[in-house]
Design brief:
8 strands; about 40% helix; about 15% strand; Spore Coat Polysaccharide Biosynthesis Protein SpsA, Chain A; about 240 residues
Length: about 240
């Protein structure tokens, strides 16, 4: 795996995708304070060309606001992060799929760099929050994410800088070719399975902002699910596949 968006000798020439070929997908849960800003940023950066899909379980005005800003909203009962993200990935209808969170922590201004990396031949482009410090992230979360990255690096045999980022771009075939789980550990799995299967993966440093609104994720339960994924995915991919 490489860092940055420049192609190397092992990367095939890309197809020349534009934002007309991009679906931006996210799970949303009570994000009425941030959803309009995030969707406006996607609209501005992509020139309104990317499709946007929100899998929503909110009890507030998030789905109404999302629809007003042009997103396709898929409603479902609250079932957790992994279920929402997997459903959003499955609903994407274009050859390049970008995941993000709807809390305004991720820079939509980085979308052109993600698309450039896909067009350089990468199959997965992962936003690395930690290289630039991620000072807006709570200290407990930041330390935990660094520990997850170190553990993943040891287990897969390659340097991994951020296993739990929510902002990534994928070629559609990567999503279709792998059977994914539905727990909070999906954030790590979405990086580790493609990496272990030999897909072309790169990490791009990105800025990370303080979230708008309160988080609904339990850091301890979520951390346990992520650690479990990091420990089990390499074994599943190398021994049982």
């Amino acid at each position: 795996m490489s860092v940055g968006s420049e192609p190397d000798g092992n990367v095939r020439e890309g197809e020349g995708y534009t934002f007309d070929d991009v679906s931006v997908v996210m799970g949303t849960y009570d994000e009425e304070r941030a959803v309009a800003r995030v969707l406006d940023d996607v609209e501005r950066v992509t020139g309104g060309k990317a499709s946007v899909i929100c899998v929503d379980s909110s009890s507030d005005r998030t789905p109404e606001i999302a629809r007003e800003h042009g997103a396709r909203v898929i409603r479902q009962e609250p079932q957790g992060y992994g279920v929402a993200v997997r459903r959003a990935l499955e609903a994407a209808d274009r050859p390049v799929i970008v995941t993000t969170d709807c809390d305004d922590t991720y820079p939509m201004a980085a979308l052109p760099r993600f698309l450039d990396a896909i067009n350089s031949g990468y199959d997965v482009v992962s936003g690395d929050r930690l290289t630039r410090g991620a000072d807006a992230m709570p200290r407990f979360n930041r330390l935990g994410n660094r520990a997850f990255a170190l553990l993943a690096s040891l287990l897969v045999g390659e340097r991994v800088r951020d296993t739990t980022t929510g902002m990534r771009a994928y070629r559609r075939e990567v999503i279709e070719d792998i059977e994914w789980t539905e727990n909070t550990g999906l954030s790590a799995e979405l990086l580790l399975r493609p990496l272990l299967r030999g897909y072309r993966v790169t990490e791009i440093p990105i800025d990370y902002r303080e979230r708008a609104g309160e988080t609904t994720l339990d850091p301890l339960a979520g951390g346990a699910a992520i650690a479990t994924s990091i420990l089990t995915v390499p074994v599943e991919e190398r021994v049982f596949r």
